[in-house]
Amino acid sequence: MEEVQDIVIVGAGIAGLTTSLGLQRLGIQSLVLESSHSLRVTGFAFTTWTNAWKALDAVGIGDSLRQQHKQFYANLNTSTVSGVQTAAMSFEAKGKHGDHEVRCVNRKLLLEALAKELPSGTIRFSSKVVSIEISGFSKLVHLADGTILKTKVLIGCDGVNSVVAKWLGFKAPTFTGRAAIRGCVNFKSNHGMEPKFFQFFGKAFRSGFLPYDDNGVYWFLTSNEDKEREDDPIKMKQFVLSKLGNEYVPDEIKAIVENTELDSIISSPLRYRHPWELLWGNISKENVCVAGDALHPMTPDIGQGGCAALEDGVVLAKCLAGALQKEQSEETKGKGDREREEYKRIEMGLKKYAKERRWRSIELISTAYIVGVVQQGNGKVTTFFRDNILAAFLAGLVLKKADFDCGKLSFS
């Protein structure tokens, strides 16, 4: 039995829910399929740079999230090799698109805020996509439970292991040989940290600490991958504390890791898509496209993975809504002609989206990878250049990549 849907979005993560809400704001319904039984929250929190807030404002949830998260006013980088503060950059600056705005947002609160704005029934949980099939001007989406959805538009927001990206011809993302350990702690009383982004750089590692509200702190450490450590939170915690163990790291910072419960520590290998795959590959094909990590998996070194997913959602909603809401060229056309014309309009709308996101995605993936290689330097020469010559430049580069506006929601 086939179920007919106009738009099917695979994945109820940041990109999927933002796209669905963007379409909803423009008067277009969609169905979001999520393979898990509830909203998935991995990574605890993420840095939301200026470009992310432009997108959140576009879909109408920026102000509610601002009330729950502290605004950062500066970034402070310290070398654990020399103890020297290598960079201090103010976020109270103007960019090409207005004042910069940086916060650390709780992923759970973000996903709940997006989902709350969608009509009941928009998200369908426990719906795992297993295959995709062409059927005339539509796509048949086969689910693990035997359900078949017939849709005019298929959007893959299903992460680094995307079924939709594979259908479009993309290879699986490449492992970098690095891993990120992430943790989150909620203190019973005010932690007293200043609203700043604190980073520590050592031999072959980078660590950061971000207070997202008065009681909560998100932290991370990127280093070389270790298979034995990745499934053992005790070893992860010990490893992070060993890296931050010298006299150049304040006791208050070490206490954040020490107070983190074991079930609030995770590790994941870092993967990325080769930029040249996006140069030649199909971001869209026919009436199918990808967004978020399914499109541009990147390393977290410039903090743009989640931010770019928000951008994707707004741009895609605009391009698709513009295609769907154009009037038929002739009132008297038969059904087959109308379907063909609509199919072509959808195809052109998705091509427009792909064109807008291709170079932005290539730029972010490439920058993140290069910055990661430099920041996680291990040799004496690399460490010297990072801490004494490149620190201020790299800090400024991160802010520069965030100076981007995906635009407001209107028909494109």
Which short descriptors sum up this protein?
20 strands; eight-stranded mixed beta sheet; seven-stranded mixed beta sheet; alpha+beta; single chain; elongated; 11 helices; about 400 residues
Report what the structure shows:
The structure is a single chain. The strands form four sheets. Strands 1, 2, 10, 11, 12, 13, 19 and 20 form an eight-stranded mixed β-sheet that branches. The protein has a seven-stranded mixed β-sheet with strand order 6-5-15-16-17-14-18, with helices on both faces. Strands 3-9-4 form a three-stranded antiparallel β-sheet. The longest helix is centred in the C-terminal third of the chain and has 41 residues, at 335-375. The protein is built from eleven helices and 20 strands. It is of the alpha+beta class and 412 residues long. The protein is elongated and about 75 Å long. Helix 1 runs parallel beside helix 9 (305-324), helix 2 (50-58) packs parallel to helix 9 (305-324) and helix 10 (335-375) runs antiparallel to helix 11.
